[in-house]
Write a structure and sequence with these properties.
By secondary structure, the chain is of the alpha/beta class. The protein folds into two domains: 6-153 and 190-213, 3-Layer(aba) Sandwich (Rossmann fold); 158-185 and 217-306, UDP-galactose 4-epimerase, domain 1, CATH 3.90.25. Helix content is 37%, strand content 17%. The protein has twelve helices and eleven strands. It has helices spanning 28-35, 67-74, 92-102, 119-122, 128-143, 158-164, 190-202, 221-231, 244-256, 266-274, 287-290, 297-306, and strands spanning 6-10, 40-46, 58-62, 79-82, 106-108, 148-153, 173-178, 185-187, 210-213, 217-219, 237-242. The protein has a seven-stranded parallel beta sheet, with helices on both faces. A two-stranded parallel sheet has the order 7-11. Strands 8-10 form a two-stranded antiparallel ribbon. The chain is globular. The N and C termini lie far apart (51 Å). The protein binds NADP nicotinamide-adenine-dinucleotide phosphate.
Length: 312
């Protein structure tokens, strides 16, 4: 059985540091990969970045515009896990080139997304750079049989989305129910996403050159709202039905006006998760491969209880 020993993680602070400020080990992926005690881990960080990491974690400074620099940094690495930022997806093109030249065997790109293999989701502009990367990985693996990849699709992050009000505004008040709020969708905690990365690195053959689907639970906005009402009977929510088709139209306008930030792209994200026919509820989940127990409504309740409620 092929075994991976050395893992490079590209990018470390990640969006989740906003919700996990006390977490001294950076992202949940870094925590899971280091915590598994199966790998020697190296962090790739830009020269300008200042990651706050324990001394035990080796940090290599890289220039993401330079494939030779990346090739040198990736010498002796068996796998690369990228968590590079959404707005710099193309940064991963030289990283892939460097990985092939350095003899890296498995590449996990910064995907961690909705089901972008679904044709309707794939048509949303916010995912185009990720899809381009999938195509490059597929072509690169075809040309270089020793180079392989795995794409991890996890849906919206459950804990992160609760904290940021993507599913509902936890503190109460007006809350949006997308297309009615009854459509089931797959969602995954950051911790489970970290475990999925470790399991993919431990099951190379089974996860080779394909999308791996991970989820903790399938739920709906209305179910989350019901639990939130049980947990916080003193709060009042005013549900407002919002059309994801209209949100998508607004997101197209934003993009046409050069606005590419997270808020401007919200309509695309909501469409891919909550709209009918976009694959928000995963059909085939790699539960056995990843050894991930599905969460229950009680687990969901505990997460909602513990979630930070922004602006309180
Ligand atoms: N499913 C979900 O709910 C969900 C939610 C949010 C994000 N995501 C996905 O998770 C991944 C990371 O998320 P994010 O966009 O929020 O990441 P981020 O926190 O903005 O950035 C992650 C890392 O990217 C590096 N970075 C930032 N700007 C860069 C640049 N211009 N060039 C090269 N590297 C740069 C930084 O590393 P250094 O400073 O250490 O070099 C940073 O630590 C993306 O694929 C995103 O789509 C999924």
């Amino acid at each position: 059985m092929e075994v991976i020993s050395n893992v490079a993680i590209a990018g470390v602070i990640e969006f989740e540091s906003y919700t996990c400020a006390s977490d001294t080990l950076g992202s949940s992926i870094l925590k899971a990969v280091v915590g598994s005690k199966r790998f020697r881990v190296t962090i790739l960080a830009r020269h300008l970045s200042e990651p706050q990491l324990p001394e035990s974690v080796e940090v290599l400074r890289v220039d993401y515009d330079s494939a030779p620099d990346l090739t040198a940094a990736l010498a002796h690495q068996d796998a690369v896990v990228s968590v590079l930022t959404t707005n710099a997806m193309n940064t991963q093109l030289p990283l892939i080139e460097g990985a092939v030249k350095a003899g890296v065997r498995r590449f996990i790109p910064s995907e961690f997304s909705a089901n972008i293999g679904n044709p309707k989701a794939a048509a949303l502009p916010v995912y185009h750079s990720k899809i381009k990367l999938c195509d490059v990985l597929q072509q690169t693996a075809e040309k270089n049989p020793n180079f392989t990849y795995s794409l991890i699709r996890n849906g919206p992050f459950l804990d992160w989305s609760l904290a940021f009000g993507f599913f509902l505004i936890l503190k109460g008040g007006e809350t949006h129910l997308y297309d009615g709020g009854d459509r089931p969708f797959s969602t995954t905690t950051l911790t489970t996403r970290g475990k999925a990365v470790v399991e993919v690195l431990c099951h190379l053959e089974d996860a080779k050159n394909r999308a791996v689907f991970v989820q903790d639970i399938v739920t709906t906005q209305k179910k989350i709202l019901k639990i939130a009402q049980e947990v916080n009977p003193e709060r009042t929510w005013i549900p407002k039905i919002v059309s994801t088709a209209e949100m998508e139209a607004r997101a197209h306008e934003n993009y046409a006006n050069g606005m590419f930030d997270l808020v401007s792209a919200l309509g695309f994200f909501c469409r891919s998760v909550f709209a009918e026919g976009y694959g928000g509820e995963f059909q085939e989940v790699d539960k056995e491969l990843l050894g991930i127990r599905q969460k229950t409504n009680n687990d969901l309740k505990a997460l909602i209880k513990g979630a930070p409620k922004s602006d309180q």
